[in-house]
Amino acid sequence: MRIGELADRAGTTTRSLRYYEEQGLLPARRTANGYRDYDEDDLRAVNEIRSLLAIGFALEDTRPFVECLRAGNPTGDVCPASVAVYRRKLDELDDCIARLQAVRAQVAAAVERTTGEEPCCKRSRT
């Protein structure tokens, strides 16, 4: 399939696909007339990249997942390098959650200090 069809099927843009190619994540084979040529494995790789980006992974973090797929695995997250990225991301998320909880505690303390009331933790559902 050509780049436009791959973009349509993956729900992305040709510009993104060219960028993935530039970053070495999506190899582009060329037909005799110079058109990029992709197959179903490329579609799987693009879908893997897009799903990881959608949940907050950096583009470079997708590389082990794509390589895992390219190695013939049914999914991109069964290889040790992919699991290592998952673990690193979990650590980042845990750190972020801890920082947010600390900020929340400070804001709640400020509300209690200035109003004499415990801060409300649930919004009213009207």
Compose a concise summary of this entry:
With 126 residues, the chain is mainly alpha-helical. It has helices at 3-10, 14-22, 40-54, 63-70, 80-115, and strands spanning 29-30, 36-37.
* Overall pLDDT metric: 93
Strand order of the biggest β-sheet: 1-2
Number of helical segments with 4 or more residues: 5
Uncertain segments are none
User: What is the rounded distance between the termini?
Assistant: 51 Å
Q: What is the chains' assembly state? A: single chain
Radius of gyration: 22 Å
Envelope shape: elongated
Instruction: Give me the strand/helix succession.
Output: HHEEHHH
CATH names the topology as Multidrug-efflux Transporter Regulator, Chain: A, Domain 2
CATH architecture: Orthogonal Bundle
Describe the structure.
Helix 3 packs antiparallel against helix 4. The chain contains five helices and two strands; from the N terminus they run ααββααα. With about 130 residues, it is mostly helical. The termini are far apart. The chain has a single domain, classed as Multidrug-efflux Transporter Regulator, Chain: A, Domain 2 (Orthogonal Bundle). It is elongated, with a radius of gyration of 22 Å. Strand 1 and strand 2 form a beta hairpin. The protein is about 60% helix and about 5% strand. Strands 1-2 form a two-stranded antiparallel ribbon.
